[in-house]
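Entry for the shared binder. Reason: the reviewer on the internal report wants the predicted structure included alongside the sequence.
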Amino acid sequence: MNYTVRKESADDYTPVLYQNGRYRVIECRDGIQWVIQKAKKTGRGREWRGFGYCRTSAALIGIWSACTGETAPPELDCLPDRIEGGLAR
């Protein structure tokens, strides 16, 4: 059996909904939440660590703004009110 494990911490993980410098927002692999991640340099390159886990766009935008000091970009502002089982599927 040959399959690929999708690691959310990988630099090439998809779907990435928005990325700006060291921060990005992804849809989790199960499609049930959005995750705000911050890049960390490791001996293997760059790894992403999640710190904000959100089911609503209001929570996502609030955490994004508090942590990055930026207002929500259009890519996040246009998300539905709640994630309902996967945008990228």
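Summary line for the report: The chain has a mean pLDDT of 89.
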